[in-house]
């Protein structure tokens, strides 16, 4: 099986998007498949047209000249389609696997339809909802509805569709997409890269001013508005009033970092809040070792109700306790009172109360950690999750081979 992946961006950039991509492609390579990836203009300019990172062959797209909105996106699609066509000419894929956003699907479909290769479109989040979550879009606006129309059109044209959770599948079905066309490929953890947790890193704890006996709450990830970290910081004064040794450790960065640092500096418990900044992924396990409870206070909106995050799974794989807002994406991952704790969204007092209850009684912590780790191993482990793609790929290849009416054209026409 030869699979050509079409990506918004990839390694060496680090994000939840690239970590999921690496896990998928690495597992497919381990299965014995031939795999290659084309990254789009948003990867940025590169000194090389091709490079191999972590055993994955990446083919880079030269970004087009910057221009006005819409025109710029059209040029991005064209540049990516041309690069996909160039790579496909030599690689000769059995399937083109395009990953969201929809710009990638549009480029992949242009090539796939031209050369007679089936296209699987994988949606990790709806682009229009991600824009709302990032504060760059407005639900119901002209731009929002236009992107939603393009997304639905791409799904209808694709030969198969993958989504990362049931929430996204349900939304597509409500748009009239046949449920049988959609597979769920949930977020997972590569336990070969993110395996056994490290012991408590006493040296790092001392460096960060964390003492033995502290109740350490942590967040490790990107600082977007929809993550609700402003609510977590606002929850610290009542939590510290209840648990004087409570500390908050924030690892990562993003658009909200400046505002969050200012909020923390103005907090009456500013001394209990630590900002670490971004750390290499190879170092992140050291920080997990310091945290008692990982908190994920996502705000309630379409994005968080429909999309499951990756970070709670990483925390459970590291045998950490998780506490998260009661939104749809979290409910697909966390069983309240069993593998984690769910609290009311958009409520600092609910966050503080939930964390205080957890710290007040540690007697069941080991059992809960074990159940969380078992959930990841059984249901969210990439080494087994990758098998979900097999019947879909096989069906697409078989359909192509049996369709005698559609002969491939020259990729030069793309």
From TrEMBL:
Glycosyltransferase subfamily 4-like N-terminal domain span: 16-188
Keywords from the named record: Transferase
Gene Ontology MF term list: hexosyltransferase activity
The organism's place on the tree of life at top rank: Bacteria
InterPro entries: Glyco_trans_4-like_N, Glycosyltransferase_grp1, PEP-CTERM/XrtA_GlycosylTrfase
Keyword Protein transport: no
Name the record gives this protein: Glycosyltransferase, exosortase A system-associated
């Amino acid at each position: 099986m030869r699979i050509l992946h079409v990506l918004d961006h990839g390694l060496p950039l680090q994000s939840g998007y690239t970590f999921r991509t690496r896990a998928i492609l690495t597992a497919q390579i381990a299965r014995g498949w031939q795999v290659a990836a084309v990254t789009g203009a948003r990867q940025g300019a590169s000194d090389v047209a091709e490079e191999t990172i972590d055993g994955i062959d990446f083919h880079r797209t030269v970004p087009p000249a910057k221009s006005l909105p819409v025109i710029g996106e059209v040029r991005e699609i064209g540049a990516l389609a041309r690069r996909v066509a160039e790579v496909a000419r030599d690689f000769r894929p059995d399937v083109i696997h395009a990953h969201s956003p929809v710009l990638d699907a549009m480029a992949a479909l242009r090539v796939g339809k031209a050369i007679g290769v089936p296209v699987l479109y994988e949606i990790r989040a709806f682009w229009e909802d991600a824009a709302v979550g990032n504060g760059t879009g407005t639900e119901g606006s002209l731009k929002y509805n236009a992107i939603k129309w393009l997304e639905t059109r791409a799904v209808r044209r694709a030969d198969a569709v993958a989504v990362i959770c049931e929430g996204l599948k349900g939304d597509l079905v409500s748009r009239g997409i046949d449920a049988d066309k959609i597979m769920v490929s949930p977020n997972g953890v590569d336990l070969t890269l993110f395996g056994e947790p490290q012991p408590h890193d006493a040296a790092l704890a001392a460096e960060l001013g964390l003492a033995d006996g502290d109740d350490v709450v942590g967040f490790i990830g990107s600082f977007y508005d929809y993550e609700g970290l402003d609510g977590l910081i606002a929850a610290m004064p009542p939590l510290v009033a209840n648990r004087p040794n409570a500390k908050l450790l924030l690892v990562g960065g993003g658009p909200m970092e400046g505002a969050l640092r200012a909020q923390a500096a103005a907090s009456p418990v500013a001394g209990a809040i630590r900002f670490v900044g971004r750390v290499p992924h190879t170092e992140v396990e050291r920080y997990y070792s310091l945290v008692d409870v990982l908190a994920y206070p996502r705000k309630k909106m379409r994005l968080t109700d429909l999309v499951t995050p990756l970070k709670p799974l990483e925390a459970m794989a590291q045998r950490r306790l998780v506490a998260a807002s009661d939104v749809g994406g979290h409910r697909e991952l966390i069983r309240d009172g069993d593998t984690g704790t769910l609290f009311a969204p958009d409520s600092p007092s609910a966050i503080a109360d939930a964390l205080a209850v957890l710290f007040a009684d540690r007697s069941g912590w080991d059992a809960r950690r074990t159940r969380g780790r078992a959930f990841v191993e059984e249901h969210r482990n990439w080494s087994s999750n990758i098998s979900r793609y097999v019947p879909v790929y096989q069906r697409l290849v078989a359909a192509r081979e049996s369709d005698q009416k559609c002969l491939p054209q020259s990729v030069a026409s793309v």
